[in-house]
Amino acid sequence: MEEVRTQSKKRKRNKPRKSQNNNNPSHQKNKVTHEPNQSSSALAHPTKSSTFLDKMRARLSGGHFRMINEKLYTCSGKEALDYFKDDPALFDMYHTGYQEQMSHWPEQPVNIIMKWLKNHNPSLVVADFGCGDGRLAKNVKNKVFSFDLVSNDPSVIACDMSKTPLDSSVIDVAVFCLSLMGTNYQNYLKEAHRVLKPCGWLLIAEVKSRFDPNTGGADPKKFSKAVCDLGFSSVLQDYSNKMFVLLYFKKKDKQKSLMQEIEWPELKPCLYKRR
Ligand code: SAH
Description:
Layout: H1 2-13, H2 40-44, H3 46-73, H4 77-86, H5 89-102, H6 109-118, E1 126-129, H7 135-139, E2 144-148, E3 156-158, E4 171-177, H8 185-195, E5 196-207, H9 220-231, E6 232-238, E7 244-251
The structure holds S-adenosyl-L-homocysteine (SAH).
Family: Belongs to the methyltransferase superfamily. RRP8 family.
Subcellular location: Nucleus, Nucleolus
Organism: Castanea mollissima
């Protein structure tokens, strides 16, 4: 973690360069590439140099991923939206690193959510909050509204998910798969509550350590209580996976007017270690 913090300070002063490879055509300018570089030194010693360059590139891209990841966990959704508006290439960098990290997980939570949807009526309308590359929508029969900060796909709606363009009470299932990232995460859950129909589902998959009080994570009971105070009932909490927890809630049919402020526990950032 110390290592991540040190790196992040350095990068804050020096944002990742838009182009990692001067040979890139302009339309690829902002992409981090893992292709071997065609420089003369690489050609002279193809095996040794390209391995070295590949390693250096992977290290650089891993560093960028960890920096962007930390930024997303430590700013509000509005700031995150502006951050990516400023330089949408950072979003690609983030997702290259994210997929790399995920490839080491024995099971990806998004697949469990897909299975859950496949076991329910395909007529359920879904909102995927923080959809990433929108793979949930691509793999289920349901109508899915996919939201993320940047849209690289026409099916993804770019917005800060605390303010989606959806009408109220139109969604059957709201999904947050590893996406409760902002410091104002409660606003995302409030938005989910607004767009969900009465008795609609709220499915949350989150990194396990964020809900482990023994390692500085939030108390899952406090989190669950806050979500219930917002107007949900807890249906199931699944801690069986080593990497993530799955929390299933249902929106209450009738909401009592709230007399007191909801106490939202702080959710610590999930900082990935250098591999
Ligand atoms: N749910 C996907 C991606 C998880 S990565 C999956 O499981 O594969 C978390 C995603 O949440 C990122 O793509 C990030 O951009 C998005 N995100 C974080 N804060 C957001 C916000 N305020 N509004 C919209 N998307 C957000």
